[in-house]
From TrEMBL:
Record's subcellular location: Membrane
Protein name (record): OPT superfamily oligopeptide transporter
Residue ranges of the region described as Disordered: 1-42
Primary localization class, coarse: membrane
Membrane topology, record value: Multi-pass membrane protein
Keywords: Membrane, Peptide transport, Protein transport, Transmembrane, Transmembrane helix, Transport
InterPro entries associated with the record: Oligpept_transpt, OPT
Listed GO MF terms: oligopeptide transmembrane transporter activity
UniProt similarity note: Belongs to the oligopeptide OPT transporter family.
Highest taxon, organism lineage: Eukaryota
Comp. bias (Polar residues): 1-11
């Protein structure tokens, strides 16, 4: 997991990532585009030194170089060291906390992530507290080497953020346990997690210079975090003011969250329509949404910050507008498809991730599996093909659209920014690299920086400053790649996944290719979404009839891509914060390995104690198996019956056609903007719109109204009309809310939600409907 959470990184980005160069007069300043902060006036900057440090007086910030030099401090103190005892202890502690919380969140009805802002604040508080330890004698100086510095802070947070994500491999292990009755040994499972989590670092580590060094690869989601680091360490007095507000909010949210999470679940989503008519199925589908897979949650008001989240506080207004377009489109598309009975929608639940038979019962995949968990064609013909809930099929279609829309969007609107990468694959460049690189890695020294600057870094003081430190040798990344590949191959055969070695290597090659595309997109625009469905489709055609093999192909094809993007975001943040590259490498690797082990421990505990809930279609408002159900259903569908279901004569032939639709989607807007720039068609980002067309297909949906209200309040009003207030307190408010939610969810999970084995439900009353939907809507999912 990058320091920029993947779910946030998907949505964050430029206000006008697709800005056409022909309309400079209406182009907003890059600072507001990339960081979501409108530059305050010169007067405001003079009145508050904190704001002056974040957004100094400037008239234009239209180029990436102006942006990174005017909004971030360019000074460095090489005497500061990140390698302190307290940095490792705090980093390991937050890594452990983040990994456990992330895995708990993964089995929630609405998957949320550990917010990086919370990790930054928590690390700062712990670091400052450790600086109060008396420096008496060698032990005191070892425990407290001096003031807590920025390099230690960034080192801790990169380590913690690398751990604070749910490893995709745990999803596969959960599926194998829940649906196949298989549970690999602890050693095999942990080594598989090590391999799948680290292989992305090796894949892209050797190409990191292309995506990190050039100034035009700004990595927008790293900018506000780098700014927050600097504001904490450049002026301690102002930082302490922020900390007080953070802890007030954190404590307040912790106390409040007990109400919606435990005592009064109705407040997760108050639906006036369902309260007025609790016996209407239409109202449930359209306005219900407090339970997993209940309904669209339209106009429901959530008071649970765990599900509302805080990403809307930092997303640019343009991003929120495109999300809103996709959200409205999703409601219309899903409801219309259901009541028009597309794909026999009314034979299946309105929202569901499981597989079904043609008569609407849950599909038993054991009926079609033969030896080695391969699909038996005769058994498949006898039992019948699996079916999706129509909402799930639509989500697959729109995600495919989003994948290719993202690629086309970049090539149409940002070709000038990405052509540098493709130039590095010219025959001459490859020849020069082969014959000028020393392959004697054991003789690696720290050469002097070359006199010729790296292309695209001219005049960049951040790049010049980071060159003063030893770079992580490429053979470190080569070694990680070789070890992770070897371990992955061994695990494939040891766990009897039936994925052949050549398909495994194909998955890695596919991941490497797609990483090149999506790294360009994310580095420039901040938009990212893992193209897992497209990868799964390719795996199905390469290795048909093998669901477990398809899952393993998807794991190494998709997870390596996500980890590579995470690594790059962290490396760019480290460059902005002047953390030495070798320290970044160590922090990422240590955090990733610690997180993998704790992810596995928590996954085993949750699967063992909540097995029946995880296998149910709807789950509860506390636990849900939506993610493992989706992963398994797609593996069985694609890997077991891909051609029959998605081929030319298949029921869902339109799902793979989504790749074509996505390629076409950005073109009309691009052509229209070329001829009619005054229409501002560049404001529409088809990548965001397409991915959000399927956003309501899973989970608790009652939080979306509050999500948009708070987002438009922060970005549309406070940012625009109160920029000083926005720049001073916006990130801290988001951090306080996220921190309070993370802490109380951690406590409640083990205290009352059965995370430790014993569940203690709150007594039933009108506001805690244990026998149906918490918002009192008619309960429909009775399968």
């Amino acid at each position: 997991m990058a320091i920029t959470n993947n779910s946030t990184a998907v949505q964050m980005g430029q206000d006008r990532a697709g800005e056409h160069r022909s309309a400079p007069a209406s182009t907003p300043s890059t600072i507001s585009t990339l960081t979501g902060i409108e530059p305050p006036t010169s007067k405001e900057a003079r009145l508050d030194p904190e704001i002056a440090a974040i957004t100094p007086e400037t008239t234009t910030l239209d180029t990436p170089l102006q942006l990174v030099t005017k909004t971030l401090d360019i000074t460095d103190n090489p005497s500061q060291s990140p390698y302190t005892f307290r940095a490792f202890i705090i980093g390991l502690g937050l890594s452990s906390f983040g990994a456990v919380i992330a895995e708990i969140f993964y089995f929630k009805p609405q998957t949320v992530g550990v917010q990086p802002i919370f990790l930054i604040i928590a690390a700062f508080c712990l670091g400052e507290a450790s600086a109060l330890i008396p420096r008496w004698g060698p032990v005191g100086r070892f425990l407290n080497p001096g003031p807590f510095n920025q390099k230690e802070h960034v080192f801790i947070v990169i380590m913690a953020s690398s751990a604070a994500g749910s490893a995709l491999g745990t999803e596969q292990l959960a599926v194998q346990s829940l649906y196949y009755g298989e549970q690999p040994s602890a050693a095999s499972a942990i080594f598989m997690l090590f391999s799948s989590q680290c292989i992305g670092y090796g894949l892209l580590g050797v190409m990191r210079k292309t995506f990190i060094y050039p100034t035009k690869f700004v990595w927008p989601t790293s900018l506000p975090l780098a700014s927050l680091f600097q504001s904490m360490h450049l002026n301690k007095d102002l930082a302490m003011k922020r900390m007080r507000l953070f802890w007030y909010l954190c404590l307040g949210v912790m106390i409040w969250e007990i109400v919606p999470q435990y005592i009064f679940p109705l407040t997760v989503g108050i639906s006036v329509f369902c309260l007025a008519n609790p016996n209407s199925a239409v109202f449930t589908y359209l306005f219900g949404g407090t339970n997993g897979n209940e309904g669209m949650g339209l106009f429901s008001w959530s008071m649970d910050w765990q599900y509302i989240g805080t990403t809307q506080f930092v997303l640019p207004l343009n991003t929120l507008v495109n999300q809103l377009i996709g959200y409205v489109g999703c409601v219309i598309l899903t409801v219309a498809a259901y009541y028009c009975n597309i794909w026999n929608a009314q034979d299946y639940p309105f929202l569901a991730q499981a597989l079904f038979t043609t008569n609407g019962t849950v599909y038993s995949q054991t009926e079609i599996l033969g030896k080695n968990n391969e699909v038996d064609p005769s058994a498949l013909a006898a039992y019948g093909l699996p079916r999706f809930a129509t909402s799930n099929a639509l989500a697959l279609l729109t995600l495919n659209m989003g994948t290719t829309a993202a690629v086309m969007h970049i090539f149409l609107w940002n070709w000038a920014d990405v052509k540098l990468f493709f130039a590095s694959f010219s025959p001459r460049t490859i020849k020069d690299q082969l014959f000028t690189t020393s392959w004697k890695f054991w003789r690696t020294t720290n050469p002097q920086p070359p006199t010729k600057p790296f292309p695209g870094t001219e005049g960049d003081p951040h790049f010049a400053a980071i060159r003063a430190y030893k770079d992580a040798p490429s053979w470190w990344y080569h070694t990680v790649l070789l070890l992770a590949t070897a371990i992955g191959l061994i695990c494939c055969y040891e766990q009897q996944t039936s994925l052949p070695w050549w398909a495994f290597l194909t998955a890695l090659a596919l991941s490497w290719f797609l990483t090149a595309i999506f790294a360009c997109m994310c580095g420039i625009t901040g938009f990212y979404f893992p193209p897992a469905t497209a990868i799964q489709m390719i795996g199905a055609y390469l290795v048909p009839r093998r669901p477990v093999a398809n899952m393993m192909f998807t794991l190494y094809g998709s997870n390596a891509l996500m980890q590579a993007i995470s690594m790059l975001a962290d490396l760019k943040l480290a460059q902005y914060a002047k953390l030495p590259p070798r320290a970044t490498f160590v922090a990422q690797l240590v955090g990733t390995c610690v997180g993998a082990v704790l992810n596995w421990v928590m996954m085993n505990s949750i699967v063992e104690n909540q097995r029946e809930v995880l296998l149910s279609v709807e789950g509860t408002n506390v636990w849900s198996g939506q993610n493992v159900q989706t992963y398994n259903a797609q593996a069985v569908a694609w890997g077991g019956a891909g051609d029959e279901m998605f081929g030319r004569d298949g029921v869902y032939w339109m799902v793979p056609m989504g790749l074509l639709f996505g390629l076409i989607a950005p073109i009309p807007f691009w052509i229209g903007h070329k001829f009619f720039p005054h229409l501002r068609l560049d404001y529409f980002n088809t990548f965001i719109i397409c991915t959000w067309l399927g956003v309501l297909s899973v989970g608790i949906n009652s939080s979306l109204t509050a999500y948009f209200v708070f987002g438009f309040l922060a970005q549309g009003y406070i940012r625009r009309y109160r920029p000083l207030l926005f720049a001073k307190w916006n990130l801290i408010v988001a951090a306080g809310i996220a921190g309070g939610c993370s802490l109380i969810v951690f406590i409640l999970t083990f205290a009352v939600f059965g995370g430790s084995g014993t569940e203690r439900p709150f007594p039933a009353w009108w506001g805690n409907n244990n026998q149906g939907n918490a918002d009192r809507c008619l309960y429909m999912n009775r399968i």
